[in-house]
Design brief:
The chain has 556 residues and is an alpha+beta fold. The protein contains 20 helices and 17 strands.
């Protein structure tokens, strides 16, 4: 009864008015909800894309720098081998253990501390039977005086005594030391004698260093060949290598932290770029590499530093989330205002313009240089990073031809130059390395990207140019090339060549020093048959047997 009275009290006009009021409330709210949801979805997609892109870029940068670090560390570990090979050849030529003067002259041909960083000195270790010890000491003291003092322990029948070491003033603490009196050192010398290959001791505290840091002895067996062709053991030549000195100049890799450990020596950290272990705070990127060298396995543990981890997002992603949330809310508000009335739409548009100005600030605050040029190729706008990089003001830049600031393509490469010029003319995109000379005469290398801008009708409207300064990276690459050239000069000075055989392609590669030793042109490309033909028949057969053995067993 009450329901009938209530229904009767509502007139048709009142019902229509109520329905209109409901529509006026529901539709704006529905539109606002849909617009805000769309904005949230777009924000999520944008942040996800940016996060994935920055993560991939940071990962690629880490992988590239980690690979470069591995190559550099391995090169530093292997470098003393060149000096040992030269000394080994000297002993083989003498046919006997070198005297103090002979060994000093052999080492004086190069300065190991300057040319081979980390090598404290080169030495010769004599294999002395205990019953021949008095005669050995008499001869040694006739050359060094009473300062030659034997230091040994135990009752082994043969002593492995450091007979000579140079430069002597910096290495006198090791002269006369019985290397065989210490178990690990003796085992390394025995392994070098048995295998004929370079052998490296476990990490040890060198006698020349009292600071508790680690080094190792690089040992190779010194042999001589008699007239009848019999090969006999003469002794050992060795290098005392100090790991912190050998790896010291790798600290410039600001994005990485690394630790070098010996896998067999209880994972002992023999060198760390910052401390004795990796940072306590977990890094985003990690890598472990095993470096096999001298009969030992070294583990190179690499982790990213906070500077590199910060490239994956952090504040920038938070900024995107904040801006996306604001824009999503504004989209919902815009929908409500547009549906609710024109005045609200105008007010909302004004507010959104302010937000768009804030978004423009993001582009202005980026560290990369950004240029906008019109269809005539003249600069219309540049961000602050551009002015900082080029050290010029807006009055000196705006209106000038874009080509004045894009530099030249790398090495004058014609295809790259054509693509660059076409991009400036709006006929395609360009991405590559360019260089320009600043007003102070310094050359800057830039990673340049040029993208054309087209209007909705397809007409060319100008270009946008983004440049990142890569001068430091280029200098690092040039430094690496200089290091490789230095290694080649070192091999030339030692008179040691090298060659390798690719078992997949059967390609033989000779070093420049090997070509020089064989007196062939620089462009000479041998195969295995004519490469072996350069050796005498007896040596040729031994090489063929050794190569066949390595192919069959994988052993050296």
């Amino acid at each position: 009864m009450v329901g009938k009275r209530l229904a009767a009290s509502i007139s048709p006009q009142g019902a229509s008015s109520l329905k209109n009021r409901v529509h006026r409330c529901v539709w704006p709210l529905s539109g606002a909800f849909l617009a805000a949801s769309l904005g949230a979805l777009l924000t999520w997609l944008t942040v996800s894309a940016v996060a994935n892109r920055t993560q991939a870029a940071a990962q690629a940068r880490f992988d590239s720098e980690a690979a470069e670090l591995k190559v550099n560390v391995m090169a530093r570990l292997e470098r003393p081998r060149y000096g040992l090979d030269g000394l080994r050849g000297t002993v083989a030529a003498l046919g006997e253990a070198p005297g103090a003067v002979q060994f000093r002259k052999a080492v004086a041909a190069s300065d190991p501390r300057a040319e081979l960083p980390g090598v404290l000195g080169f030495g010769f270790i004599a294999d002395v039977p205990r019953d021949a010890l008095p005669a050995f000491l008499d001869k040694a003291r006739s050359e060094y005086g009473d300062s030659f003092a034997l230091r040994t322990s135990g009752d082994a029948q043969d002593l492995y005594v450091i007979r000579s070491i140079e430069p002597l003033p910096a290495n006198r603490a090791a002269l006369g030391f019985d290397v065989g009196s210490e178990v690990q050192r003796r085992a390394t010398l025995d392994r070098a004698r048995t295998t004929g290959q370079l052998a490296v001791t476990p990490p040890i505290h060198l006698l020349q260093k009292a600071d508790g840091s680690y080094g190792a002895l690089y040992v190779t067996d010194a042999r001589a060949t008699d007239i009848d062709g019999r090969v006999r053991h003469v002794g050992w030549v060795y290098a005392a290598v100090h790991f912190p000195t050998a790896l010291a100049d790798l600290y410039h890799l600001a994005d990485l932290h690394f630790v070098l450990t010996d896998q067999a020596a209880s994972a002992r950290a023999i060198f760390a770029s910052e401390s004795d272990a990796l940072p306590g705070e977990p890094a985003l990127f990690h890598r472990r590499e095993t470096l096999a060298f001298g009969g030992r396995d070294f583990v190179l543990s690499i982790a990213s530093r906070p500077e590199l981890d910060g490239l994956t997002g952090g504040r920038r992603l938070l900024l995107f989330w904040e801006l996306g949330g604001v824009i999503s809310l504004l989209m919902g508000l815009a929908a409500w205002l547009l549906i609710g009335g024109r005045q609200r739409a105008v007010a909302l548009a004004r507010h959104m313009t302010q937000q768009l100005d804030r978004l423009a600030k993001v582009g202005e605050l980026t560290m990369d240089s950004v240029l906008l040029a019109d269809a005539a190729g003249r600069i219309a706008w540049a961000n602050p990073a551009f002015y900082r990089t080029h050290r010029q003001c807006a009055a000196e830049v705006i209106g000038r031809p874009l080509a004045d600031f894009c530099g030249e393509t790398m090495d004058g490469d014609m295809p790259a130059r054509d693509a660059w010029q076409a991009a400036l003319a709006g006929q395609g995109a360009f991405r590559g390395e360019t260089c320009w000379t600043a007003t102070d005469g310094h050359v800057h290398w830039m990673e340049t990207e040029i993208q054309p801008i087209h209007h909705r009708d397809g007409q060319f409207g100008g270009v946008v140019v983004i440049q990142a300064d890569i001068t430091a990276r280029r200098l690092a690459e040039e430094g690496l090339k200089e290091s490789e050239a230095f290694l080649d000069r070192t091999g030339r000075a030692a008179g040691v060549g090298g060659w390798q055989l690719d078992l997949v392609t059967q390609t033989v590669t000779w070093s420049a020093e090997t070509r020089r030793l064989h007196e062939v042109p620089d462009d000479f490309q041998p195969d295995f048959a004519n490469a072996v033909a350069f050796y005498p028949p007896g040596a040729r057969e031994r090489i063929e047997v050794a190569v066949a053995h390595s192919i069959a067993t994988g052993e050296g």
